[in-house]
Amino acid sequence: MTAGTPATGAGEPLRVESLATLPGLGGLYARGAAASGRIAAGRAMPGLPVIGQGRSVEGDGEAAPLTLPDVAYQVTGVPTADLAHHLHDYQRLLHEPVTDVLPAGYLHVLAFPLATAVMVRGDFPLPLLGMVHLANDVELRGHVVLGDVLEVRAWAENLRPHKRGVQVDLVAEVRRQSEPDARPVWRGVSTYLAKGFHLPWTSADAESSADAPDDAEDRAPAGTWTAPLPTGRWALGPGTGRAYGAVSGDRNPIHLSALSAKAFGFPRAIAHGMYTAARALADVGHARGDAYRWTVEFASPVLLPGTVDVAVTPDPDGPGFAYVGWNGGRGRQHFRGTVTPL
Amino acid sequence: MATRKPSDGSSRSASGTPARAANPHAPAGVRDAVIVGGNRIPFSRAGRKYADASNQEMFTAALEGLVARFGLQGERIGEVVGGAVLKHSRDFNLIRESVLGSSLSPQTPAFDLQQACATGLEAAITVANKIRLGQIESGIAGGTDTVSDAPVAVSEGLRRALLDASHAKTLQARLKAFAKVRPSDLKPLTPATDEPRTGLSMGEHQAITTARWGISRAAQDEVALASHQHLAAAWDAGFFDDLVTPFRGLTRDDNLRADTSTEKLAKLKPVFGRGLAEPAEPTMTAGNSTPLTDGASTVLLASAAWAAERDLPVLARLVDAETAAVDFVHGHDGLLMAPVHAVPRLLARNGLALDDFDFFEIHEAFASTVLTTLAAWEDADYCKAELGLDAPLGSVDRERLNVNGSSLAAGHPFAATGGRILATAAKLVAAKAAETGKPARALISICAAGGLGATAVVESV
């Protein structure tokens, strides 16, 4: 991940486009679905311009290279004073302590719709629906409390190959309006995979892809990963996806019901990755401090209803925590990550 | 019963004299709190004899038996303290209501207290401390629990709707509140023994601790077998004749299986720790884990002078106590390991070592709880890193451990266990001192949910 000002792949600063208000995720999914359909149609229909660095699915179409929009969205003057009830709902659902301090996962909920707005732009080259959330890397550098007025920025960067397609980082930053030039108080990088798309590989890509989270864990032969002794067990009911969807606004159909998830190839509804990561973050508790880095890598989806065994354990050599979640019955890893005080 | 004399008449100070504490380690200005005796009802497995008995009915029965045993009718006791772990909100004054339903003076104050499975012992510690400070002359400590008659709560969704509706000022607002209720909200919530912060049941937590310490199935079954054999022998020997009052036709703890055997225990399937990855092996069965149980217990404590004035027997002194808690949320320590931390502090404060005890009463939440406790005290690394000791605390002589059985055989109605153990320990040290002519001591250790533990030293008088 790259820190600092948003820039294009070529290093040019992105054009900053201001929106009046933060978009809501609900409407964006409708637009995303339409765009996804258009992109899928573009890939599948011979004769139409094909997306994907010159190699069309059908073989020899004229194709534009995959490029990310050269724009960063920005919304200023985002008020938080009237979010008390919403914050409380989030804190209860995620087992966070009920305070007026916005946890890192809540800031993700606030900021991510702006990143989604980038993903549903007409010139965003990958389909929103069907993208796989691979990882998240979040830094919270201080207290954001109810009443703070915020500035949110989001853009896409770092389009790169993945063994099974193309991965891209969606970056979102939150600053306090009172300190517009300071480094962001919250910064989140969400890494997504679009399967079936291609970029030319370089040896450097191959190397970075080796570290990149993919589904190596769940494809690894049985016995290569041994579950530790759990420190907790989450019993996730069938409504878990609907509950987090209501609080986060992320009503992606794969999370809402078995029926809507089946349409996207899942046997049942799956938990939001960020729900599981935020539960793990809450499990760390006060030891995380006021400023922390919080990472997660997703290995396999958590089917709902379901039980997840978790081990949230302090790093023996440092102040941080590591966590891992797995299916206790099958020993299959769902996610893992770290929480490190900054 | 009330005429039974102290085993050692010479230890009794002249009536009314404020006796100095016999314990040289006691802080200046405190006096002894003595244990006069105890009374409980037989413990019964959930859903059996006490299936429809309430906490208040059971505690009142145990209390009334204590009153009868020691002739306390009309007596104004200094304080009655007790509680229940699974308590209905209507029982906000459970102990006071029980007092009002007993033949104690209605001027007897009371209060409820709760510390999970350590409730009963914590109640006794509280009463003893009031006596030691001279705030009260007499007190009764105890506890009661029913799993069969457990409170049932409504779901969070229905609860919120009911509250919103009750706050609503118009019919429309009330209807709006109820409109939010979903069918799934109508399912009642029964109390769970899951730890709120981890979602793991107590059995699953202990399975993890068991795996960490590598406690074998055979060792656990051995503890369970000994518990049943010891409890059966104690009943047969009449040990509980002056500690138990029959209730609802039950005269003995009905979880007791005098005829159990190593073979029978070995046949049971593991119930906890089945989801743990290799090399952890599930070893905890219904045989070496405590069953859910209903019951109630009480203990009468007093100043030595108060007991002497009423010509009441004195079994022992409650010398000192220590509670502890462990950081179990991130697996640093096992959920039920808190007494392991409390005991070394308790012993150090009182200048005692494990060898100074004639009896060890270690609550058998699970057989493996006892075994992990013993293993930890013998482990040099654990004692150094976790307990701050230069050397292992030491070994517990198994011949002195739970000699009259414990919770695996008797059952474990959460808040009632402390009173059962305290009365048993007091009677054991009194008998031992009478037999040998030397002071006898017992160490009590009770683990509790939430990573809590309470421990106490009981000494003959």
Automatic annotation (TrEMBL), chain A:
Chain segments annotated as coiled-coil in the UniProt record: none
Superkingdom assignment: Bacteria
GO cellular component, one term: fatty acid synthase complex
GO biological process assignments: fatty acid biosynthetic process
Residue segments, region Disordered: 204-225
Domain MaoC-like residue range list: 242-312
Gene Ontology molecular functions: fatty acid synthase activity
Signal peptide: none
Gene3D superfamilies found in the cross-reference section: Hotdog Thioesterase
Database matches in InterPro entries: Fatty_acid_synthase (IPR003965), HotDog_dom_sf (IPR029069), MaoC-like_dom (IPR002539)
Family the entry assigns: Belongs to the enoyl-CoA hydratase/isomerase family.
Identification of the protein by name: MaoC like domain-containing protein
TrEMBL record, chain B:
Cellular component, GO annotation: cytosol
Coiled coil: none
One Pfam family recorded for the sequence: Thiolase_C
Residue segments, region Disordered: 1-28
Chain ranges of the Thiolase N-terminal domain: 34-304
Stretches assigned to the Thiolase C-terminal domain: 313-459
Name of the featured protein: Acetyl-CoA C-acetyltransferase
Organism: Krasilnikoviella flava
